[in-house]
Amino acid sequence: AQSVTQLGSHVSVSEGALVLLRCNYSSSVPPYLFWYVQYPNQGLQLLLKYTTGATLVKGINGFEAEFKKSETSFHLTKPSAHMSDAAEYFCAVTGGGYNKLIFGAGTRLAVHP
Amino acid sequence: DAGVTQSPTHLIKTRGQQVTLRCSPKSGHDTVSWYQQALGQGPQFIFQYYEEEERQRGNFPDRFSGHQFPNYSSELNVNALLLGDSALYLCASSLTRHTTDTQYFGPGTRLTVL
């Protein structure tokens, strides 16, 4: 069985500050991990994904995430927040042969001036 | 290249009615998955279609059914609607069913059950 826990349903940062969104996973098979972003009244857009290889993954819009197997974590970071980053962020996991996504509950990021 | 498209955008139904939602996958994709996103929650997997057959199913009752057509487009049907079925229904397509294949999402259909 697989599951995802996102710590913090709401995160608020100042424009220009570091963004850190936390994701921990549980998986009985080697996990493949994803971060998606959802803007209001829209579908989900892929930010980045980890499959195999390099554990530091770079995505779109300046985001990156690091896969840490020992900590079962896949936290999302961005060095400097922009107002346009305000959205809902979802961490997800697949594994076991098929690409059925198991999502966390999401973290709403607010960016204030 | 058009991405994943869904119709309709919004839908209002009453309890007990039936609804059909439609999805066209991204060009070249043959696998379609459906997700339900209740307000304030993450999407939950309903089922996945490949080669016109349901290949995987999440923890949803039989009231939820689907279909995939030869052109890979798909429909989600929900019978005997309940108030709790109110949600954003997301369709996602991928090149294959392989674990690492990215799923591309459509904008969703907002279903309201009164």
Question: What's the topology here?
Answer:
The complex is a heterodimer of chains A (113) and B (114).
Chain A: E1 2-7, E2 10-14, E3 19-27, E4 32-38, E5 44-50, E6 56-58, E7 64-68, E8 73-78, E9 87-94, E10 102-103, E11 107-112
Chain B: E1 5-7, E2 10-13, E3 19-24, E4 31-37, E5 44-50, E6 53-57, E7 64-68, E8 74-78, E9 87-94, E10 104-105, E11 109-113
Parallel strand pairs in B: 2-11
Antiparallel strand pairs in B: 1-3, 3-8, 4-5, 4-9, 5-6, 7-8, 9-10, 9-11
Descriptive overview:
The complex is a heterodimer of chains A (113) and B (114). Chain A has strands spanning 2-7, 10-14, 19-27, 32-38, 44-50, 56-58, 64-68, 73-78, 87-94, 102-103, 107-112. Chain A has 113 residues and is mostly beta strands. In chain A, the strands form two sheets. In chain A, strands 2, 4, 5, 9, 10 and 11 form a six-stranded mixed beta sheet that branches. In chain A, strands 1-3-8-7-6 form a five-stranded antiparallel beta sheet, with no helix packed on it. Chain A starts with a strand and ends with a strand. Chain B has no helices and eleven strands. Chain B has strands spanning 5-7, 10-13, 19-24, 31-37, 44-50, 53-57, 64-68, 74-78, 87-94, 104-105, 109-113. In chain B, strands 2, 4, 5, 6, 9, 10 and 11 form a seven-stranded mixed beta sheet that branches. A four-stranded antiparallel beta sheet of chain B has the order 1-3-8-7, with no helix packed on it. In chain B, a hairpin with a 6-residue loop joins β4 (31-37) and β5 (44-50). The chains are: A mainly beta (113), B mainly beta (114). The interface between A and B is medium-sized, with 27 and 29 residues.
